[in-house]
Design brief:
GO terms for molecular function: DNA binding; protein dimerization activity; zinc ion binding. There is one protein chain. The chain is an alpha+beta fold and about 675 residues long. Helix content is about 55%, strand content about 10%. The protein has helices spanning about 20-25, 70-75, 110-125, 135-140, 150-175, 225-240, 255-270, 285-300, 300-315, 320-330, 350-360, 365-370, 385-405, 415-435, 440-465, 470-485, 490-520, 530-535, 540-545, 550-565, 570-575, 585-590, 600-605, 615-625, 635-650, 655-660, 665-670, and strands at about 35-40, 50, 60, 90, 100-105, 180-190, 195-205, 210-220, 245-250, 280-285. The strands form 3 sheets. It has a 5-stranded mixed sheet, sandwiched between helices. Strands 1-2-3 form a 3-stranded antiparallel sheet, with no helix packed on it. Strand 1 and strand 2 (about 50) form a beta hairpin. Helix 15 (about 440-465) packs parallel to helix 17. The longest helix is centred in the C-terminal third of the chain and has 31 residues, at about 490-520. The relative contact order is 0.10.
């Protein structure tokens, strides 16, 4: 499968417009008049009659005459006095006088159906839930007016809900004042063996708030190579109408991503939709790199880590043994037993760190246990091994803290990454030169992987840090000095040069936008001043026919004044930095600088929105595992996308916060992210 040329119209498949059929198939609700009228069977099948439920009056009804006369009767029916009492409810909050108030309540069937769709989506419930007796009993008690629906109706409601919300998100993307950054990752479902792609859009909105929305969660067709994935991504961007608003894409280390990025760059270059010839276009996932680095290092320290792992497993395997261990801890060593022994997950190094940390907390108890339990003695560590474990834990803590920042639920702006990555780099350099020789082989292997990442992406990380008023250029220079010494100035100069080139492109963009808004307001500037002087100046008449240097001289003066003027970037860099450890919202800082740095803030808005981690997309795969279960493995791809996207969009609107619910633990725990 090859990538379509820029002139070829992109084919519209069922990845976007297939949801329109659900809107067209939406059934019209039954006329409300029949809620208070009963159809009567007549001997003559061509004759229809209806009886009022209140006064029992019988009316003739014909398909040609409609139901207007029935509605008029219900509006004037004298016995219809009990109906309105069902439209009132006692408020849960008492009035200021302390007396419960009565509020007017009107049952809305459509709103109730939408609430059920939200319940299914956010809870990852099966559509069969609406047919379960317990659910129907709950709804009957909560709202007697609610009419039961089938699983097919519930599924159709979710698709309709998705189509409407998708249009709203599309409008948000269209109104985004700056460019849009992307994260993309692939995931294989173990239950269906389908390969899914997740594409997430990131941008800073008009209120200077960082926004994130999943815009694609679809099963791919084989082959799963870079060309095919590039076509899928281009199709997605075209359908959402943002193919000319892309600034950057963040990817993991998969080999096919290099081919995909090359295809995307070629297409964007053809459309002139790429900045600085793609120098800022791609970023590797920083969390993924740290994961690979630490896992590679821990493999060389697996002996002592394996002893700790097996020892904790031995204690926790028996409930009686576990209870005795915590009793001894509490009564003999007076430690807080609410902090438990942590057993690691081999595929997640952060759990390995937490396991090592917990073992150091219980070090004395574990030594005591080893002296009295013969079966545990094979897992006991010597004093030297414990010292090495303490050094290893301190070394890994830097990686753990940085990963927690990178993988947080409130995804940080790009300026925060530079400081974290620099700390990792500095720790690796210091450890190699340090006195702990047992760490040297492990750290050298970690350095090889890290140096490759740093060489490729320190430019983007540094530029984002410079736009943080606490760091600016001085902090970046300091960090590079600690790493490269006398050669640091060469790296800093390269970074500053690229930042200026990028800023110049934004200045051109800003001026072209301003000139288009200004229209022809500057036409009068072209009118020569006192043009009649040349007609009466005999001394200049001989030279006017040869050439007139006045226009060229004016341009020269104008260009000279522009060159002498300092750019907004220069002014920003010359101002003193804020306190290094001050707690500020960098987006709030730039929103308040819109008057002074009206050009520079355009660059800051886009550069700070770059996600240096694919955690946003990877967290969707944790959600996908809850949607595609063994009991729901037959869900169609379009339904999977609808549920995953709706759940993400609902969370983005603060749904859980509004109704007083706590977010899932998965969002707050770094260990839930599947690297």
């Amino acid at each position: 499968m090859t990538m379509a040329s820029s002139d070829t119209p992109i084919p519209v498949d069922n990845g976007f417009n297939e949801y329109e059929s659900s809107l067209k198939r939406q059934k019209s609700t039954t006329l409300k008049v029949w809620d208070e009228m009963t159809k009567l069977e007549c001997e003559n099948k061509n004759e229809l009659k209806a009886q009022c439920n209140h006064c029992k009056t019988i009316f003739s009804t014909k398909s040609s005459s409609g139901t207007s006369h029935l509605r008029r009767h219900l509006n004037s029916c004298l016995k219809k006095v009990i109906k309105d009492i069902t439209q009132y409810t006692i408020a849960t909050q008492p009035s200021p006088e302390g007396v419960p108030s009565i509020k007017n309540y009107k049952f809305d069937a459509d709103e109730c159906r939408r609430a059920i769709s939200t319940f299914i989506v956010c809870g990852k419930h099966s559509f069969r839930t609406v047919e379960e007796p317990g659910f129907r009993y709950m709804m009957r008690i909560a709202s007697p007016n609610f009419k039961n629906i089938s699983r097919h109706t519930a599924a159709r409601d979710v698709l309709i809900y998705y189509a409407k919300e998708r249009d709203r998100v599309k409008e948000e993307l269209a109104k985004a004042p700056g460019l849009i950054c992307l994260t993309s990752d692939n995931w294989n479902s173990e239950h269906t063996n389908d390969e899914y792609i997740c594409i997430t859009a990131h941008w800073v909105d008009k209120d200077w708030k960082l926004q994130k929305r999943i815009i694609r969660f679809r099963a791919l067709f084989p082959p799963y190579d870079g060309l095919n994935i590039a076509d899928e991504l281009v199709l997605c961007l075209s359908q959402w109408g943002i193919d000319k608003k892309i600034f950057n894409i963040t990817l993991d280390n998969a080999s096919y991503n290099d081919v995909m990025v090359s295809c995307l760059k070629n297409r964007f270059r053809a459309n002139r939709a790429i900045l600085c010839d793609g120098a800022f276009f791609q970023v590797r996932c920083c969390a993924h790199i740290l994961n690979l680095i630490v896992k590679a290092g821990l493999e060389l320290a697996d002996d002592v880590v394996g002893q700790i792992r097996n020892g904790i497993r031995y204690i926790k395997k028996s409930g009686i043994r576990r209870k005795r261990f915590y009793d001894v801890t509490d009564k003999s060593f007076h430690l807080n037993v609410t902090k438990k022994l942590c057993q690691d997950v081999c595929v997640r190094w952060n759990y390995t760190y937490l396991m090592i940390e917990s073992s150091l907390y219980y070090k004395d108890v574990l030594d005591y246990w080893g002296q009295r339990d013969k079966d545990y003695q094979m897992f006991a560590l010597s004093n030297k091994e414990w010292r090495n474990v303490a050094i290893l834990c301190k070394f890994l803590q830097v990686f753990y803290d940085v990963t927690c920042i990178f993988s947080g639920s409130n995804y940080p702006t790009a300026n925060l990454y530079f400081r974290g990555v620099w700390k990792v780099h500095k720790v690796l350099l210091d450890t190699v030169k340090g006195p702990y020789s047992f760490l040297t082989p492990m750290v050298k292997q970690m350095q090889e992987k890290f140096n490759k990442y740093w060489a490729e992406y320190s430019l983007i990380l540094s530029c984002a840090a410079i736009l943080d008023p606490r760091y600016k250029l001085n902090y970046v220079q300091y960090c590079f000095n600690t790493i490269y010494g006398i050669h640091a100035s060469d790296f800093v100069e390269t970074i500053l040069c690229n930042l200026r080139l990028l800023f110049d492109e934004y200045v051109k963009k800003f001026k072209s936008t301003s000139s288009s808004l200004a229209g022809n307001s500057n036409v009068s500037d072209k009118i020569p001043v006192d043009s009649g002087l040349d007609e009466h100046n005999d001394n200049s008449a001989d030279f006017v026919g040869y050439f007139d240097e006045s226009d060229g001289y004016k341009r020269y003066l104008n260009e000279s004044s522009i060159r002498s003027e300092k750019s907004q970037l220069d002014i920003y860099l010359e101002e003193p930095e804020l306190e290094l450890n001050s707690q500020i919202d960098v987006l709030d800082y730039w929103s308040k600088s819109s008057v002074r740095y009206n050009e520079l803030l355009l660059l800051a808005r886009d550069l700070l929105a770059i996600p240096i981690s694919t955690v946003a997309s990877e967290s969707a795969f944790s959600m996908g595992k809850k949607v595609i279960t063994p009991l729901r493995s037959s869900l169609k791809p379009k339904m999977v996308q609808a549920v995953v996207c709706l759940d993400d969009w609902t969370r983005a609107k603060g749904f859980s916060t509004k109704i007083g619910c706590k977010m899932d633990d998965d969002d707050d725990d770094v260990s839930s992210v599947a690297f």
